[in-house]
Amino acid sequence: MNSTRHPTGLPFIIANELAERFSYYGMKAILVVFMTSMLLDSSGAPAPMTESDAVFWYHVFGMANYFVPLFGALAADLLFGKYRTIIALSFVYCAGHGVLALDDTRIGLMAGLSLIALGSGGIKPCVSAHLGDQYRQSGSGRISEGFSLFYLAINVGALLSTLLTPWLLAHFGPKVAFAVPGVFMAMATLFFWSGRRRYVALPPTPWREYCAELGAPRARRSLLMLALLFMSLSAFWALFDQTGSSWVLQAERMDRQIALPLLPHFTILPSQVQAINPVLILILTPLMMWVVYPALSRRKPLQPQHKLAAGMVLAAAAFMLIAFAQARLAGGLQVSIGWQLLAYFILTASEVMVSITALELAYTHAPSVSKSLVTSFYLLSVALGNGVTAGVTAIFERLALAPDSALYFTAFSLLALIATVPVGLFSARSSCQGTGS
């Protein structure tokens, strides 16, 4: 059977993802500003972090948030199933938001972020794999559209939150700004629970059956190629996730006045600049899916390795543009935020090519018993990328170089270019292994 309809549980999964991503990106958008200007000590006195420390801990949190999926995936595949794992860890996630909203100290920050990393990281591989299960069981041939709609939901949530929470932080302080994402996470949990009777909820796999399928020669080859691919893709995430750290620090030094026809001039907050990314995702995702990719495929079928390699080159180009803007700032020149907006356009086009393609590969090429586990491998690439960024930032601090210097951005641009070769190679070999059942 190859149905042309989407699964009936899709709206609940999409609504859950939109609200959950609102909570995550809303909290994350204000982290660096909060850590560098609003953090308190136990007596209530200001105790902000330095910029280098804030960038370091921001990426350590990102690394933890994308390392935990490995354990969430194993819990879902072997013990509880995806649905129960998502519901249980969603409550942990909500608790983390609550701690951030109630405690402005470093202890509160670390406790809240730890709970969020456990909750958010634990459900990440399960939600996308759960989405794929709905298509696999219903026989629908529209799984690519389903993952694109899923990605659009992520970015609608990200857009709304990155506009709203910086404004809330500026006007009402950190308690309200962190509480609102917590409310949205509670809504996300309710949305997901409401669809429980519509889902295909696959049971966990017995240990022996799990090991037997993963030990099959074809499965081993597929897992090896995917692991190598995702390791190479960590270079992309080392660049991309800096939009919430070093790019925010650069934006603070730029001229952020915006002049639009028929509207009064206004100044955008440094943390709000990130909102352009989800706006561009909402434009570029359907444009790529229904216009660009079909047009390019008329002469020769467009393979995943083509999208991934092109995406890596574009990411490198975006960072070279940022490095150029930073060199002008270092020279004492006034630089418009338009430079960052152009870099965001290039980086977002890169994201559409890399992230959606890799997410679909993680599901379609995984052995049937380990969809969540393989998705967690993909998410580990994000953890590794954030680890690379944290490490490079620490090295630059030792060398007395700022985490937003032109040399810093140029180094990451070169990293992406170098990684393009293994990304293209391993994605081509992964595609040749065939899809998982």
Secondary structure: elements and pairs:
Elements: H1 10-29, H2 31-37, H3 51-67, H4 69-102, H5 106-138, H6 143-172, H7 174-194, H8 207-214, H9 217-240, H10 246-252, E1 257-258, E2 266-267, H11 276-296, H12 304-330, H13 338-364, H14 371-398, H15 406-432
Antiparallel strand pairs: 1-2
Helix pairs in contact: 1-5, 1-6, 1-7, 2-3, 3-5, 3-14, 4-5, 4-7, 4-14, 5-6, 5-14, 6-7, 6-11, 9-12, 9-13, 9-14, 9-15, 11-13, 12-13, 12-15, 13-14
The structural domain count equals 1
Question: Roughly what fraction of the amino acids lie in strands?
Answer: under 5%
Q: Say how many strands there are.
A: 2
- The total count of helices amounts to 15
CATH architecture assignment name: Up-down Bundle
Globular, elongated, flat, extended or rod-shaped: what is the shape? globular
Low-confidence stretches: none
Mean pLDDT: 89
Provide the gyration radius in Å. 21 Å
Assign the structural class, choosing from mainly alpha, mainly beta, alpha/beta, alpha+beta, or little secondary structure: mainly alpha
CATH class: Mainly Alpha
Give the ordered list of helices and strands.
HHHHHHHHHHEEHHHHH
Provide a descriptive summary of the structure in words:
By secondary structure, this protein is mainly α. It has a single domain (10-432), classed as Growth Hormone, Chain: A, CATH 1.20.1250. The protein is 76% helix and 1% strand. Strands 1-2 form a two-stranded antiparallel ribbon. Helix 2 (31-37) packs antiparallel against helix 3 and helix 9 (217-240) runs parallel beside helix 14.
